Here is the input.
Amino acid sequence: MTNRERILATLRHEQPDRTPYHIGFTQVAYAKTAEYFGDPDFGAKLGNCFTMLGTAPSGAWREVEPDIWQDQFGVRWDRSVDKDIGVVVNRLVTPETLESFPFPDPYDPSRYANYPAATRPCDDRFYIAEIGFSLFERAWTLAGMPELLMAMHADKAFAHALFDKILAFNIEIIKRACATGIDAMYFGDDWGQQRGLIMGYPLWKEFIAPRIRRMYETVKSRGKFVVIHSCGKVDELFEDLISFRLDVFNPFQPEVIDVFEAKRRYGDRLCFHGGISTQRILPYATPDETREHVKRLIGEVGKNGGLFAAPAHAIPADAKPENIAAMLDVLQNQ
Here is the structure.
């Protein structure tokens, strides 16, 4: 099978010739693994199944001070410790400033400059356009995490208005991205922590559910697949997400979600991307234990399709390079 055929079979819950996979790294983990392999370009040889495309415009990120990076919204991120994402250090939106706060231009053509044409010839790539920090995350980066969570209880009008403004922006991005030759839209929006939802189910149902449903419907009405990323224990949402026609859930953390039970309960209706432990196996196991972990995931969760194998997040800095090598050995030699 070609890579694209393998992906489409997996999405149809059919058994591909081998389980597709997609591996991401934090900067520190990549550097350590490159040193281990003696190859700074090893990442180009991984065999990843997806071609990821951003939706941010050209020049969206600027280093405005040493280790302080500003995104397209004006949010500033301190990357002095976390080099990949950082920590928000400013607050831009309040109930008094929301109406006047300027959002970026969703029509900027540089957002879609490298996208495949709608009439693209058939090729082996599977293109996914990504909106990171897509709704809840974008709201708290603008308004502050504690302030947003309090508003969801005590100032609902402000919280709804903020979410609606983000939704309107996202819908325009989705429409333009889906008019190209992409195959899927990916939404990043962490709702979970290790023990459950950050905001709890009732508030998720009130504030998040109707808006992500609208986003997913916009994608599905244009014939594309929907992928979401939400860290943490969020499996209580799977029935809702399936009803919203979600296709793929990521990151599928085995530390907080029983991946084998999830396959049994939802595996005929939902695909999973992730499942390889970044909290226990990659940092602490032996290479042989890592191999067995990955083989079991492929053999059980990957049975009859429905799995895109991957670490449960971008590989963290404390992962052992020898365990990363063991994982890749299994994935690349199925």
The first strand starts at residue 51 and ends at 54. The chain has a mean pLDDT of 97. The longest helix spans residues 156-178. Residues 59 and 285 are 41 Å apart (CA to CA).
